[in-house]
Amino acid sequence: MTAQPIHHHEPERVPRNANGIAEALDGPRRVEFYRQLLAAAPEEAEGVLIHWWCEAMLDTDPAGDRLTAAALDGTLRTTTVEDLMARRRQAGGPVE
To answer: Is the peptide bond before 11 cis (omega within 30 degrees of 0)?
Structure first.
């Protein structure tokens, strides 16, 4: 199954490239990102970029602190995979 972003960012908060990702991360996380990217085999590099792009997007999310607090205090709204699939079908989205 694939997932599409709920909110599109124009332009994206974090460009989908190594420089954009690195700029969005703080010092120690930036070092770890570069360490993993440089250690990755060519066929693994895309996975490293995707992982760290997601991390950078979470780090720069304006609602991030609110979402973290809600998760920690147990008030973050959750749903089931079945409900998500039903909503996607209803909206005409692909469900694989």
So the answer is: yes
